[in-house]
Amino acid sequence: MPLIVAGPVGQDAHDGGPHPERPARVNAVMDGIGDLRLGTDLVQVAPVRPTGEQLRRVHTPVYLDELELFAHHGGGSLDPDTFVTDDSWETAMQAAGAGLAALDALAERGDGSAFVVARPPGHHAERERGMGFCLVNSIAVSAAELVARGNRVLVLDWDVHHGNGTQSIFWDDPDVLYVSTHQWPLYPGTGRPDETGGADAPGSTVNVPLPPGATGDVVRAALDEVAAPVVSAFAPDWVLVSCGFDAHRADPLAELALSSADFGALAEVAVGLAPASGRVVLFLEGGYDLPAVRRSAAATVAGLLGDPYRSEEPTMGGPGLDVVRAAGVLRERSLGVTR
Amino acid sequence: MTRRVVVGVDGSSAATAALRWAAGEAVATGAQLVVVHAVGLLEHAGLATAPAQEAREDVVRRVVEEAGLDATRLDWRVVDGEPCAALLRQAGGADLVVVGTRGAGAHSGTLLGSTSLALAEHAVVPLVIVPSSPD
Lengths: 339, 135
Prior knowledge:
The structure holds two protein chains of two kinds.
Chain A: E1 3-9, H1 24-35, E2 42-45, H2 52-56, H3 61-72, E3 76-77, E4 83-84, H4 88-109, E5 113-118, H5 138-148, E6 153-157, H6 164-169, E7 176-183, E8 205-210, H7 216-234, E9 238-243, H8 260-273, E10 280-284, H9 290-305, H10 321-334
Chain B: E1 4-8, H1 13-29, E2 32-39, H2 41-44, H3 53-67, E3 74-80, H4 83-90, E4 96-100, H5 115-122, E5 127-130
Parallel strand pairs in B: 1-2, 1-4, 2-3, 4-5
């Protein structure tokens, strides 16, 4: 089964110097994919240029104009976490366009899976502002494009941080189901179980916060017990994944305890939630320990393609199963579900 | 009467100006002062270049002391989160939220990265945005 890699983007650009969100992350992912020796099953596609209309579905014109202007004038800091350089706008456009290219490639082939290997990441970027290392919400641009083509889209976010930007962009959109597992408490501070979607799309957001130390079996339980029934009822046409590797136990920015093998299992879950082959696209988000990113990328792609690959053992026994179940109860209570 | 004032601090001069104003308001109205510091991605990992948390707490205690606020009415909270989300969460039940015009690390001259602007859109309690005095 083919793997379509859209990109790589950002392996030699948008460089903030001594910052964990750095170009080498992209190389680590590509090295991990290379470790699988996919041969002719690996197909690389170049980014397309996103149109203004595609960008404006998820960001305000004012924000887009200011970001472009800011970058062209040399950039600086948006906040203590988020930098902009003179080539950040161009890199962010390529990252968003890589997602669109992945959609087109899969739609044309009708089988396989895709991995958008691009940075800067996007899931923290809201309609009106970038934050948390993110400038343009690439996965949201692709999800909105699929919706415009008449599809229902599941966005599955297993980055260790909650994707506040993606959640807020699709808060009132009944055609996008947003599902997130994330460490709590942690940046950005959103993602409570009772955040379940806006008045026009009640139940279209699923949040399962996890305590520090949670292992792979806990994340799986969150998806199997809380998310899967909602996804099944939603019946997505496409599954887009905010694929962060910062829930790995070696990551310096958070305290979850997954191994690379757990990401492979999560990729298998994503495939299982899709209606058919050719309907799963991964988008690189976080992940800042380069060896862990490399191993996790390899395991994830192997899981995506159904190939055997394991460099670390799956993890289990960490805290959080009770939290997962409580999150399910809180979610149902906030939606007025009675048992 | 104001009973609970929430103010965001991040070590910037603008935030200190906001804290000074909020402490004065708390003294004048007999309110409790809730000082919120939101911990970002880099600070959580110990990679932040902004002043250390201890330094900010020192600033908070000094400013509050100068304003004449009883220490028992100071509630210092350090929470993981993006500043706007953290302040909105802590502002539940508050009478007033206070922030500076421009936080640490944010670029002046544009609306990019503006916590105060985002709060102005989302806050459900009165919001005071305090301009920093020219240095």
